[in-house]
Amino acid sequence: MAGDNRTAGPVGKRVDPPPGQVQKGVQLVAVDEDMAGQRVDNFILARLRGVPRSVVYRIVRKGEVRVNKGRVKPDTRLQAGDVVRIPPIVQQSKPERVAPGDRVQSVMEAAVVFEDDDMLVVNKPSGIAVHGGSGLSFGLIEVLRSSRPQAKFLELVHRLDRDTSGLVMVAKKRSALRVLQDELRQKRIRKHYHALVAGTWPNSVGRVNEPLLRYEMPNGERRVKVSAEGKESLTLFRCLQQFLGYSLVEASPVTGRTHQIRVHSAWAGHPIAGDDKYMDEASLKAFRAIGGQRLMLHARALEFTLPKSGEAMKLEAPYDEAFAKVLDELEQRSKGTH
């Protein structure tokens, strides 16, 4: 029976799959230009969400997965025009997720600062994660997919911390994702952040080249610290403006480690204002006292080339109201009007 999610029992009767699971029938998937180049195992994993990698390797090894009716290995690269047979397999059914509301969808669509056939760039608001998980029903990518149900492919090219605002690239094609992520690996995409840091940033500190190591707190929270055991990391800094007790700096990460700018700033003795992970309690309290409510880190500018045309692009994202309000308050205080 087409579309029947039940499986045959031992005596020929049909029985339901275990609760929370669903069985799909045989799938025949034609590989288009955008899917070409993927390994067979990754191709199948993307279509069988929730199925363990070990199960995928087993069905490939047993010959249940076929490409153009022939047996393949997990690392076989697919080509445009190939037809992949994916056997029936029981999957964990996805729990119902809270769908993003119309208001948050319209906010995210209004935050799109650039779009073409291959990609879009969003000025992500502070407080919104780039993707759901860890107790969050949805993030930026889920909101975009919800507001664009006709889009076949939407994937993050890179990430931003939840509390960091600013420019995020999203690929609309797998081919564009491959090109942009390769550009990131080759360090050909330049990212410039604006950060309000505590204290007077010295002009003599133009770069911080300290290795960073990820570790876990006793409560399970993940943090990053400078450590000789960590990965090589480099951030370039430039002071843009001085205020009483604070400095506005441009931070340009050459490497892309987790919390890199936040930890390098703190290591230099000038933690980012509003950073509840790497700023000391007294400094955080002082920042809250002047009305600071958010992490003062903003992905201000991106320099890259378009995947298809190779045209050079430079995009800039304005500050949100909360970021601009703090800068205005500090400007007034520095002039002695407060």
TrEMBL record:
EC assignment: 5.4.99.-
Region (Disordered), start-end ranges: 1-21
Keywords, sorted A to Z: Isomerase, RNA-binding, rRNA processing
GO terms of biological process kind: enzyme-directed rRNA pseudouridine synthesis
Protein's UniProt keywords contain rRNA processing: yes
Active site annotation, chain numbering: D161
Catalysed conversion reaction: uridine(955/2504/2580) in 23S rRNA = pseudouridine(955/2504/2580) in 23S rRNA; a uridine in RNA = a pseudouridine in RNA
SMART domains for the chain: S4
Keyword Transferase among record annotations: no
Pfam families, alphabetized: PseudoU_synth_2, S4
SUPFAM superfamilies per the UniProt record, alphabetical: Alpha-L RNA-binding motif, Pseudouridine synthase
InterPro entries associated with the record: PsdUridine_synth_cat_dom_sf, PsdUridine_synth_RluA-like_CS, PsdUridine_synth_RluC/D, PsdUridine_synth_RsuA/RluA, RluA_PseudoU_synthase, S4_RNA-bd, S4_RNA-bd_sf
Domain (RNA-binding S4) ranges: 38-95
NCBIfam families on file: PRK11025.1, rluA_subfam
Primary role: Responsible for synthesis of pseudouridine from uracil at positions 955, 2504 and 2580 in 23S ribosomal RNA.
Family stated for the protein in its record: Belongs to the pseudouridine synthase RluA family.
Name of the molecule in the record: Pseudouridine synthase
UniProt lineage: Bacteria, Pseudomonadati, Pseudomonadota, Gammaproteobacteria, Pseudomonadales
